[in-house]
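Our preliminary data section would be incomplete without showing what the modeling component actually yields. Below, a chain of 348 amino acids is followed by its predicted structure, encoded as tokens that our downstream tools consume directly.
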Amino acid sequence: MFRNWKVAGIIASVIILGYSCEKDRSSGPEGETVAFVRPSNFPEPVYQFEGNKLTAEGFELGRKLFYDQALSLDNSTSCGSCHQQFAAFANLDHSVSHGIDNCLGTRNAPPLFNMVWQSEFMWDGGVHHIEFSSLNALTNPCEMGMDLDSLTARLSRTSPYPHLFQKAFGSAGITSQRVLKALTQFMGAMVSANSKYDKYVRREPGGEFTQAEQAGYQLFKAKCASCHTEPLFSDFSYRSNGLDLNPLDRGRDSITNSSADRGTFRVPSLRNIEVSRPYMHDGRFFFLEDVLEHYNSGVKAHRNLDPSLRNGERRGIPLSKTDQSNIIAFLKTLTDHEFLRAKKFSEP
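Predicted structure:
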């Protein structure tokens, strides 16, 4: 296991996941090392690849599947179409998901990283296991529009997939379970933990904050950290932040059928927030300045408004323009440029 993150950050060929011993390492097709290394400032991951051992072959298969438009009904859309690496695997091009037949969904495509530390997925928490996190996009008629039987049949007659599945899983056969496991190996490997902030907390070179960043960090801890908890920058709860008085999207209530969850959505991570716009579940804000001004002056008195945004008759979080500028300076320290450029996560 790497214990020195100064060394781990230099070794660009390492695919960072969680934990590894030397005997668990294997080399990928391009000489990459597939390892399971937990960032020293991160907690234990929820998912540790039990029953889905991470291998170079499984990772490369998942990478190919992630970027293959053949996984959609009309061969027009891949996972990578809505999850773009330069946007931290969010979708810069559209406020909401954009699928086959130019169909537009109702919610913003969330960024993908640090998924092994999560136990629920989607804006409403409707998926409870990382291995099923791809299922909705694959089968949703407005996203990729495939049924799993048709998908596995298509892959079975498409070279080189039979050979790749044989290599990845040690036996012949393409099943929906194996498709999801391979995608999980690739997406589970998307660990973002080498931003300026991470270097700051690990006291590594390159982690020195400017005066504005330091001021923003203190403001962030005082005003934002109750929901966006370090080091993952989310507590993964479901809350209403007062976007609308009468929201059209039921949010978490669409899963729980509870009026107490009406209009509540999963608190997103703020890591890589600088590049993962547009923001909110419906992508209504394109600039961080708009987001912070919402909290300063735009919070609506929704019946389920989070208590942290209630202060007597004053709703929201008071933030001067200087406060907002400093907070944004800090938020930009959460951008992991190595993750955004990592060749191992790019289209093969």
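Strands lie at 14-15, 26-27, 33-34, 238-239, 265-266, 310-311, 314-315. The chain is about 30% helix and 5% strand. Preliminary results of this kind motivate Aim 1 of the renewal.
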